[in-house]
């Protein structure tokens, strides 16, 4: 498991700072800093920095292999994230689905797409031992 004295950092492109802030705040992320060329968020306890770079936006994103997100250890928190995304009308790239049904690595997952076509996956494994 992860030590609590570490924070994962991810930097991704965005095309517009205002729409990026709107999306991530609706997702429940706290805006930590804003500059003329980037915004930094508390993304479920980790750090996501969205750098203004409209020329680097993927026009046709695919789920695999490029996405990031959160793996919940608590099913209630996963369900709350799904409800939060639905209530705030965030755009789904992939609705709720079950992967690897009937296998030990079975999990539920959904994908959101942010305004810069970055894909975010949220998932919950029924067997916590399959998280890693």
Automatic annotation (TrEMBL):
First and last residue of the signal peptide: none
UniProt cross-references to Pfam families, sorted A to Z: Glyoxalase
Superkingdom, taxonomy of origin: Bacteria
Domain VOC: from-to ranges: 6-125
InterPro entries the UniProt entry points to: Glyas_Bleomycin-R_OHBP_Dase, Glyas_Fos-R_dOase_dom, VOC_core
PANTHER family to which the protein is assigned, alphabetical: PTHR39434, VOC DOMAIN-CONTAINING PROTEIN
Stated name of the protein: Glyoxalase
């Amino acid at each position: 498991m992860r030590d609590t004295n570490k924070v994962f950092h991810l930097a991704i492109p965005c095309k517009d700072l205002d729409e990026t802030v709107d999306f991530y705040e609706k997702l429940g992320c706290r805006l930590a800093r804003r500059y003329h060329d980037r915004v930094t968020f508390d993304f479920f306890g980790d750090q996501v920095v969205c750098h203004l770079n409209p020329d680097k936006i993927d026009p046709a994103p695919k789920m695999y292999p490029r996405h990031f997100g959160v793996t919940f250890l608590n099913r209630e928190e996963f369900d709350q994230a799904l409800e939060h995304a639905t209530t705030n009308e965030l755009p789904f790239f992939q609705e709720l689905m079950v992967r690897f049904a009937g296998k030990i690595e079975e999990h539920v997952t959904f994908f959101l797409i942010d305004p810069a076509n970055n894909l975010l996956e949220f998932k919950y494994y029924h067997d916590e031992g399959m998280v890693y």
